[in-house]
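Per your request, structure below.
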């Protein structure tokens, strides 16, 4: 004998339930019971942004390219940290760039790296100014200043554009005036 109910028994159960329920037509049916929406729940905290990537493990063909790859990765983490209001993760993420900065400086001084236009002094000055803007970013994040951190990140990204417009021939130059419309990019 099967332990599953037979179709006849199942049909009888459905008929019994239907017969024991009071009949109602549309005019005399009680309104449906009010349902309360489920209570709002707080999502679990996101994992620290620094756990997403090991930016310090990135390498390039030379010291400057390694630093640029690490910067790209680290700054993406900083944007995520700002969006998640996880400013405590910004200083340690930026700290991973210190050794890359030193390697770039050594490569410039030793002549192991020469910028495309050959102006080592201008490259070094822009690199130093850029790293100064990273210090401002770290200070704002350490002070838990969300608006200040976001503004400092804007300055950092502006430093990227200024250097790349000067030393990477494939990057369009920055607009000459704040009101200038951005140029269209073709891909």
């Amino acid at each position: 004998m099967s332990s599953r109910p037979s179709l006849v028994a199942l049909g009888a159960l459905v008929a019994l339930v239907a017969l024991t329920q009071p009949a109602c037509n549309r005019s005399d049916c009680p309104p449906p019971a009010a349902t309360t929406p489920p209570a709002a729940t707080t999502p679990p905290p996101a994992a620290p942004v620094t756990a997403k990537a090991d930016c310090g493990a990135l390498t390039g063909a030379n010291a400057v390219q390694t630093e640029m790859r690490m910067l790209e990765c680290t700054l993406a983490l900083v944007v995520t940290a700002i969006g998640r209001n996880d400013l405590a993760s910004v200083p340690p993420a930026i700290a991973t760039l210190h050794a890359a900065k030193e390697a770039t400086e050594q490569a410039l001084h030793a002549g192991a790296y020469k910028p495309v236009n050959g102006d080592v002094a201008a490259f070094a000055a822009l690199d130093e100014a850029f790293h100064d803007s990273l210090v401002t970013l770290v200070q704002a994040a350490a002070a838990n200043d969300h608006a200040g951190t976001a503004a400092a990140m804007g300055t950092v990204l502006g430093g990227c554009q200024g250097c790349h417009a000067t030393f990477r021939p494939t990057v369009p130059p920055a607009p000459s005036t704040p009101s200038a419309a951005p140029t269209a990019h073709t891909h």
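The first helix runs from residue 7 to 20.

Regards,
D.
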